[in-house]
Amino acid sequence: MEATLSLSQVARLTEIGADDLASLVDYGVLTPFEPQAMPLRFDMACIVTLQRAARLRCDLALDGHAFALAVMFLAQITRFEDELHGLRTKSLARHAGSDLPQDDWESSNFHFKPVF
Fold this sequence. Notes:
Number of domains: 1
Order of helices and strands: EHHEHHH
Oligomer: single chain
Structural class: mainly alpha
Strand order of the largest sheet: 1-2
CATH architecture: Orthogonal Bundle
CATH topology: Multidrug-efflux Transporter Regulator, Chain: A, Domain 2
Largest sheet: 2 strands, antiparallel
Distance between the termini: 30 Å
Radius of gyration: 18 Å
């Protein structure tokens, strides 16, 4: 069974109010583990994204809608980074036996530095 958190646990870990989290669920930005089940449970993976968005909300004084967009965009960026990492891993494994020198191969890849 996957580790899940209650709404109050997510609120405590992210320092985002339960009402704000409920709004994110209503907007469809934050998806409960099992949307029909009560009480709502959330995957632990959402914590880092929500913490980043909370920092942005504080730093940039975002309103509720802008905050929801920040959460959505940060989650999408995380998914893209995970996908890119998977593709790089597959590509490196596929080219491990090629004639391309390893140093040249590594320098041809993009390297991303986390913003937060």
